[in-house]
Amino acid sequence: MSESVVGRQEVFSRLPAVDEVLREEAIQAALASLPRPIVVEAVKSVLDEARETLLALEDEALAEVVVLGAHEAAARSAERAAEAARPALRRVVNATGVVLHTNLGRSPLAPAVGDHIRQIGTAYSNLEYDLAAGRRGSRYAPLVRLLTTLTGAEDALVVNNNAAAVLLCLETLAAGREVIVSRGELIEIGGAFRLPDVMVKSGAVLREVGTTNRTHLGDYARAVSDETALLLKVHPSNYAIQGFTASVSAAELAQLGRERGVPVMEDLGSGNFIDWRPYGLPHEPTVSEVVASGVDLVTFSGDKLLGGPQAGIILGRAALVGRLKENPLTRALRVDKFTVAGLEATLRLYLEPEHAIEAIPALRLLAAPAERLEARARALADRLRALADRGLRVEVRKEVAQVGGGALPTASLPTWVIALSAEGRSPNSLEEAFRTSPTPVIGRIREEAFLLDCRTLLEGDEDRIAEAASRIPPQ
Ligand SMILES: *Cc1c(COP(=O)(O)O)cnc(C)c1O
Predict the structure, then answer these.
(1) Atom in ligand 1 nearest the alpha carbon of residue 166
(2) Is the pLDDT of residue 396 over 90?
(3) Whose CA is nearest to atom 13 of ligand 1?
(4) Would you say residue 242 has pLDDT above 60?
(5) Where exactly are the structural domains of the chain?
(6) Atom 2 (ligand 1): residue with closest C-alpha?
């Protein structure tokens, strides 16, 4: 038994040295285009891994082990170095069917918006310079003009995201005092935004009224006191309470606020500018409708249904927005020039709403008729079937997609998907193969198949999916 034992040290010594691997052709080629420290690091990590594999072997297995050679080590290292040299944040294909997917960056910007951001970001600009007057100006001015024109609001302010918008409003108007909220609207949305926690940080005191499923105007009215700073309504972004329910409309709450001299705010979450009913989706009040209902402040995100960059948009009465602008927190939550550029360019597209639906990717994806998705799915399925040697089974199916991003929570979007499965291969292993391809493709697993949803594909994504599929090793 013991005669087969080979000294571990002797086996280790058969591993190539770093310098030896570095002299290999594959590494010399890699060095021509990649930074040397990245290549050296990759070689070291490949050799370290080989050493650890040997270390983990039983004594008996050492005699038969095939030690990693310099040639193979070089090939692996070159691949690893190429991967390490690429930016970690990269384009992916969203084949999940969730249009506003927070993990995948929410809304993709319109190409014209991206061009504008690049122009502004790579040169000097009049970000805070009033060109007409020749002196200091406000970065918010172009956004205020567009937002008030588009919504009918008196004034506007933009901060880093909607969570910041809510924090700023509560801190300015209600620190140390009470904010009345319906129990049915004390929300948590993905990514750890819990309204009660944000309230604590703002210094406002939460006063819950009603029950989870039913809140009436009288519940708010009875709770108003000298301590009340704000009546707050929150859009139930990612859920819907169904059945025996009651909630108070923004208009009713605004009326109560006026009667009792208390400002009323609505956190809209998504902030919609389009009437979606002609596209088969349920009615989601538009921002203009909410403003017209008489609430004093409205907040929403820039990168949900608006389809622009991440931002928190605040609309409302001039006197209240004026107080927000004077709060030192506003400086801390300030948006950068990329956001101003991206938001201005996106809002300009809304000056003609039909144009917005065509030009803004998130809106175009939501509006796409199911028949068009079916045609796309069938064409893509044919391309994937052509890769016959991968042993892929390719089916086309009708499915249901989601808006996502806490918008239109009850809306179900008809969609068409490609369902992939393979003999002797789990859906998880297909999912992994697509996810780890050079342009990652993210889909979902449903029962025994890996699904690629055509609802969320952008232009050219078919090529990226076919490329990822072609890298699946033949069975
Ligand atoms: C999404 C959402 C937020 C948080 O917005 P961010 O822009 O992600 O900070 C707050 N409130 C509601 C109701 C939301 O849907």
Answers:
(1) 10
(2) yes
(3) 269
(4) yes
(5) 3-85, 93-102+366-470, 110-359
(6) 269
